[in-house]
């Protein structure tokens, strides 16, 4: 095993793990801000209960998102120091902006929101959840701008030392790739939050409210939450599909090899069909033995928006890449066994092909679930069958899986590059993953950190899941003291907590 | 002043902000295991920093991010060179961050005891690690012409780096005690004041040693003057805490910290990281800096961002300015 493999595994594990938490935080923070706004406008205690309940789940999850995110920022320097030196002039800027513009706002105002229920006015309190929620969105934008630059470098020239230098921050922030990736990711995050709302609400409705009257306050909380999640989910999935289509069209231009691999398309086709699933040996690098069940001409439409265009296949792309970017790795001891070897421009076909399909597949399943949830609860109804709650609970996993497979596809699909060359950009702005790892780090150190981080992540995943389930099961009573449904007339929200009557006791304390 | 020098200064300021702010909340975490009698007191301690520790931690995220943007070579050499210390700090910060949030979520003595351990470890390791890492960048690492570490992690362990680790941990512990004397009421308040009075000088001793060793090794006349300020400020801080003037003592500890960092970074300049192998391999401010364009863009972002951060973070400190005692802690309520 080489340090390159260890560093890649660590990056992959850290990123995918981090991205289990982040979409839920982004999505829930926005939805909680909306719930609190409705409560602020209407005074309906149902929305206060929703704010507190879903806010609690958001916070349990937020802690994990923060601590796994710290590792992300450091591992570029720890494991990928050659990469950091090469691209630091460009890549560091959006990262620093994310810290300065987004993280400070997010952490400060979230602290204010958690502890501020009785310390600031209701209006300021509402503003602080919005500040925190919008900062999570801004943070997603900056980090995606950094990632998009690796997928499609723009706004740079070659500096005096041969490394890329930023010459337009505007170009970097309005990179076509980030303009597509950002809405796609944001919609994916809202889809996650919507599905979580549906699943947990369905479980509460099925367990407690099979025979409750329509005006039971607790039933109303879950019914409203479910429908809220349903609408968010359906809208988010529509946005995911539209932005995903846009993104795919860009990718056919910017990273044709990634899309050819995603389709296991060996020979160029005109028009090209979209593969539903493939039979054969995908691990064969030249996919000679693969046959696909395809929808005729659909791939041409995905790529170019018409049903006739040619889509380039792997066999045609490989020689073009070799001619443009070289056929062999440079002879350099740092590259280990890859030194002087031919460069394989085809990313892992099983990973990209199935990653792409599983992303879309799980997304579609989740979308159907959200639509079904809306249909079954229309007009205050509850789903009759006993199958609905377990299915809704299980379907919580689907958008998480779709997100993870999406990232695996997009990151694995750009191999062997860490910075993918831009076909219309400046020559020489690209980097092979193999040349990006830290030369000064030993295999032992890298292995130790891979094992340590993975074990800690695994342990914390168990704890987080345990707490999320515990608080999700407890429902509104877990976060508010009954009878939360009718607060005294003279009170603001805080007085739903009896402790508040003593002005000295903190309304919220760890 | 040229842009690289400005960014060198700004990064020093970010570290100062981090060590000052998170310094005391690390201290509170350390004292959780040392200076509390029961569960209610532990909750008092945690709640003094509950609303703000996360915001404090962002200072280091921005310090590292700014280093990446402004001095990529420094970022790459430091983080890959000090690989294991950085990893231990990260593991500690991971545990600490979730521990605050999760500790009160289950009503069980064992659950809380375990998380208290995580908080204690998570509050000791980062100041030790950061003290070690920052001293390593000031006094140099065995880096070659490419900025890559030669030798192994053992080569980082030297008298100065160990002193740096102890210095920051000692400072954080004292700073935390003084902060608690300022933020709590009742029995804890007096106990913390007593703790600071009794052990303050001892806790600042490694810092004095570090200051002395850096000044002898790399300092100049003007850094000697600043080292003098640091000494005066620490003596005054210790005297004031003895007399119960805790607020002033807290501020003077800040002056001391700032002076020490000025000496450290001042004697480092114009390098960002010297090489202990050959002065030719030193990473310099000018050599490690990003292009003028990137630095200009980042300067504009910092020019608007930094004052805003100071304003709203300062305001949250004002919102949560009240002293906390065991009387204000609500009963435990978990599902």
From TrEMBL, chain A:
Question: According to the UniProt record, what class of enzyme is this?
Answer: oxidoreductase
What Pfam families would the database entry show? Cyt_bd_oxida_I
Q: Does the keyword Metal-binding apply?
A: yes
Keyword annotations from UniProtKB, A to Z:
Cell membrane, Electron transport, Heme, Iron, Membrane, Metal-binding, Oxidoreductase, Transmembrane, Transmembrane helix, Transport
Gene Ontology BP, a term: aerobic electron transport chain
Q: Give the Enzyme Commission number.
A: 1.10.3.-
Q: Does the keyword Amino-acid biosynthesis apply?
A: no
**Localisation:** Cell membrane
> InterPro entries under this entry?
Cyt-d_ubiquinol_oxidase_su_1 (IPR002585)
Query: Topology relative to the membrane, per the entry?
Result: Multi-pass membrane protein
Q: Where is the signal peptide?
A: none
The UniProt annotation puts the region (Disordered) at 482-510
A GO molecular-function descriptor: heme binding
> Any stretches that span the bilayer, and where are they?
20-41, 53-71, 91-115, 127-146, 186-206, 226-244, 354-376, 388-409, 446-469
A cellular component term, taken from the record's GO annotations: cytochrome complex
- State the family named in the UniProt similarity comment for this chain: Belongs to the cytochrome ubiquinol oxidase subunit 1 family.
> Which protein, by its recorded name, is this?
Cytochrome bd-type quinol oxidase, subunit 1
Biological source species: Actinoalloteichus hymeniacidonis
UniProtKB/TrEMBL annotation, chain B:
Look up and give the membrane topology term.
Multi-pass membrane protein
Q: Which GO terms describe its biological process?
A: aerobic electron transport chain
User: What is the top EC class of this enzyme, as a single word?
Assistant: oxidoreductase
Q: Which InterPro entries match?
A: Cyt-d_oxidase_su2
| EC identifiers of the protein | 1.10.3.-
One Gene Ontology CC term in the entry: plasma membrane
Tell me the protein family, please. Belongs to the cytochrome ubiquinol oxidase subunit 2 family.
- Name under which the protein is recorded: Cytochrome d oxidase cyd, subunit II
**Organism encoding this protein:** Actinoalloteichus hymeniacidonis
Q: What is the lineage of its organism?
A: Bacteria, Bacillati, Actinomycetota, Actinomycetes, Pseudonocardiales
């Amino acid at each position: 095993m080489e340090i390159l493999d260890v560093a890649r595994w660590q990056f992959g594990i850290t990123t995918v793990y981090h991205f289990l938490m982040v979409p839920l935080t982004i999505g829930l923070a926005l939805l909680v801000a909306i719930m609190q706004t409705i409560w602020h406008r209407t005074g309906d205690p149902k929305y206060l209960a929703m704010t507190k309940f879903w806010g609690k789940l958001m916070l349990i999850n937020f802690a994990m998102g923060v601590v796994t995110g710290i590792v992300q920022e450091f591992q570029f320097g720890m494991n990928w120091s050659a990469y950091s030196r090469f691209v630091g002039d460009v890549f560091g800027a959006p990262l620093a902006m994310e810290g300065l513009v987004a993280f400070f706002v997010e952490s400060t105002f979230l602290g204010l929101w958690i502890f501020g229920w009785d310390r600031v006015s209701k209006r300021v309190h509402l503003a602080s959840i919005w500040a925190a929620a919008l900062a999570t969105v801004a943070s997603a934008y900056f980090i995606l701008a950094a990632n998009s630059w690796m997928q499609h470098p723009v706004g740079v020239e070659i500096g005096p030392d041969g490394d890329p230098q930023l010459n337009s921050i505007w170009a970097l922030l309005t990179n076509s790739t980030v303009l597509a990736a950002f809405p796609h990711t944001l919609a994916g995050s809202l889809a996650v939050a919507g599905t979580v709302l549906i699943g947990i609400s369905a479980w509460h409705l099925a367990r407690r409210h099979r025979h409750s009257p329509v005006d039971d306050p607790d039933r109303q909380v879950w019914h409203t939450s479910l429908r809220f999640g349903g609408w968010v989910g359906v809208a988010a999935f529509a946005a995911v599909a539209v932005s995903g289509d846009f993104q795919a069209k860009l990718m056919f231009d910017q990273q044709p090899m990634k899309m050819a691999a995603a389709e296991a398309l060996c020979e160029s086709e005109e028009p090209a069909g979209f593969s539903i699933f493939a039979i054969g040996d995908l691990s064969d690098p030249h996919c000679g033995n693969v046959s696909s069940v395809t929808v005729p001409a659909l791939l041409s439409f995905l790529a170019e928006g018409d049903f006739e265009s040619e889509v380039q296949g792997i066999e045609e792309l490989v020689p073009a890449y070799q001619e443009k970017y070289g056929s062999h790795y440079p002879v350099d001891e740092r590259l280990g066994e890859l030194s002087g070897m031919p460069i394989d421009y085809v990313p892992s076909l099983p990973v990209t092909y199935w990653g792409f399909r599983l992303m879309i597949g799980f997304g579609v399943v989740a979308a159907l679930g959200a639509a079904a949830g809306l249909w079954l609860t229309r007009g205050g109804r509850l789903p009759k069958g006993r199958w609905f709650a377990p299915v809704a609970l299980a379907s919580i996993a689907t958008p998480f899986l779709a997100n993870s497979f999406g990232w695996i596809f997009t990151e694995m699909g750009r191999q062997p590059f860490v910075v993918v060359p831009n076909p219309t950009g400046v020559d020489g702005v690209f980097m092979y993953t193999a040349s990006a790892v830290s030369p000064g780090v030993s295999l032992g150190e890298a292995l130790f950190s891979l094992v340590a981080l993975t074990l800690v992540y695994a342990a914390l995943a168990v704890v987080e899941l345990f707490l999320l389930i515990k608080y999700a099961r407890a429902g509104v009573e877990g976060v508010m003291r009954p009878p939360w449904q009718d607060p005294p007339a003279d009170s603001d929200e805080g007085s739903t907590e009896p402790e508040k009557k003593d002005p000295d006791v903190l309304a919220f304390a760890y | 002043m040229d842009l690289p020098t400005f960014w060198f200064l700004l990064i020093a300021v970010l570290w100062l902000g981090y060590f000052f702010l998170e310094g005391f909340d690390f201290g509170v975490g350390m004292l959780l295991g040392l200076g509390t009698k029961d569960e209610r007191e532990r909750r008092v301690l945690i709640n003094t920093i509950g609303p703000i520790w996360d915001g404090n931690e962002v200072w280091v995220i921005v310090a590292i991010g700014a280093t990446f943007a402004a001095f990529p070579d420094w970022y790459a050499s430091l983080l890959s060179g000090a690989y294991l210390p950085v990893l231990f700090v990260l593991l500690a910060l991971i545990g600490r961050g979730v521990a605050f949030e999760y500790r009160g979520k289950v009503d069980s003595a064992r659950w809380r005891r375990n998380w208290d351990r995580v908080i204690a470890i998570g509050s000791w390791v980062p100041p030790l690690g950061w003290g070690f890492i920052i001293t390593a960048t000031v006094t140099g690492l065995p880096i070659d012409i490419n900025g890559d570490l030669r030798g192994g992690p053992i080569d980082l362990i030297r008298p100065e780096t160990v002193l740096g680790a102890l210095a920051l941990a000692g400072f954080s512990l004292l700073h935390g005690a003084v902060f608690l004397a300022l933020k709590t009421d009742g029995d804890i308040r007096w106990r913390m004041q007593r703790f600071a009075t009794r052990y303050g000088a001892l806790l600042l001793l490694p810092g004095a040693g570090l200051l002395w060793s850096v000044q002898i090794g790399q300092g100049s006349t003007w850094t000697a003057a600043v080292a003098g300020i640091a000494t005066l400020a620490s003596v005054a801080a210790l005297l004031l805490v003895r007399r119960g003037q805790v607020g002033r003592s807290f501020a003077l500890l800040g002056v001391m910290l700032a002076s020490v960092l000025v000496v450290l970074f001042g004697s480092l300049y114009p390098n960002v990281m010297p090489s202990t192998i050959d002065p030719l391999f030193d990473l310099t401010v000018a050599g490690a800096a990003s292009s003028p364009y990137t630095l200009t863009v980042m300067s504009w972002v910092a020019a608007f961002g930094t004052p805003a951060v100071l304003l709203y973070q300062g305001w949250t400190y004002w919102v949560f300015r009240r002293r906390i005692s065991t009387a204000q802690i609500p009963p435990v309520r978990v599902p």
